[in-house]
What we know:
The chain is an alpha/beta fold. 45% of the residues lie in helices and 18% in strands. It has helices at 18-29, 41-50, 68-76, 98-106, 119-180, 189-215, 229-239, 241-244, 266-287, 342-353, and strands spanning 9-14, 33-38, 56-60, 88-92, 111-114, 225-228, 248-252, 261-264, 294-301, 306-313, 322-324, 357-362, 369-376. A hairpin with a 6-residue loop joins strand 12 (357-362) and strand 13 (369-376). Residues 1-5, 335-340 and 386-394 have low confidence and may be disordered.
Amino acid sequence: xxxxxxxxxxxxxxxxxxxxVDLLSATFAEVNIAVTTARSVAxxxxxxxxxxxxxxxxxxxxxxxxxxxxxLAWLANSPDLGLREIPVLLITxxxxxxxxxxxxxxxxxxxxxxRPIPAEELILRVQHAIENVRRFKGLRAMLQDSESQANxxxxxxxxxxxxxxxxxxxxxxxxxLASNFSADKASPIAITRxxxxxxxxxxxxxxxxxxxMASLLNxxxxxxxxxxxxxxxxxxxxxxxMKTRQFKVSFRANDDAGELWVSGNLSLIKxxxxxxxxxxxxxxxxxxxxxxxxxxxxxxxxxxxxxxxxVCDDGIGLPEAGKRxxxxxxKTTKSIRGGTGLGLWLCSRLAESxxxxxxxxxxxxxxxxxxxxxxxxxxxxxxxxxxxxTQYLK
Length: 394
């Protein structure tokens, strides 16, 4: 029997006793609660496979073939049907023993009632159970919505952080270019070429940041391809040369391994490495007021199946020795110059999106630090083949 008019709540009553079913249906109808009935656990399963919007299930325990306990066990083991969140209230007149109450509650029942029970109490217990679950779902939805909004806010702030980094490079390069072309001096061709490269590369990365940020908000993530890690690092060092020129910068590859091929996304790897290098510059500026200090970039073998890029400096270091593998937004390591704390948080998100991982290492205050990016190894492209870069230009 199915009473489905304009009721405020809807419950499924499971009981093999027809008299009980009729009584419960009439009782709940008086308080605007719709009742759908099932005479067995098997019939209940069929109903729930096609209708999942019940506010509550009120089930007898003692029924032929399968019991209310069997129904609870089936609900708990049917995650694909999305039924776990329907509250189940058990009712019985034959099993009042404590062991059965404990069993029912341990299987997930929200309450355990013993007949005879006054109609007013039964109605109140059912309504309270429904309201409690609705309140919980509402709070969870609010939390999920708040978290989604918080993530969007963090990504917007992180986008600003990245744009500021690259805008700084553009301004430095533009100033250098303007200086080289001043009326009273000849323009050194080598310096001009480096400046134009920095301008062009920064502009391309700026154009890709919006797409990179959007990739963190969907499940597809960024497109991946096999790429040369050596080349990615060399291009990043060229791009950041005007930022690092006051420091001593060295690059050392794994000579024994030759060219290192990884699976990743070229623009995201560059974005991460730019953050590493900028952080190293800031750490050196905090430690050495006269613009000295050194940055060492190394390519090494990491854990099985990974190549590593290590960007190390001998600057201010971290407040505590050790390794950091998790990063929170708005918690910065830049004690003197200040910072938003968004750079490494964003880098960790970007690394995760391409199957990589990020670690920050330090021996403590004034002992320098290393930012380490580990990327999955990849098979080099066949000789003569080209990497498809059109996906990065859309």
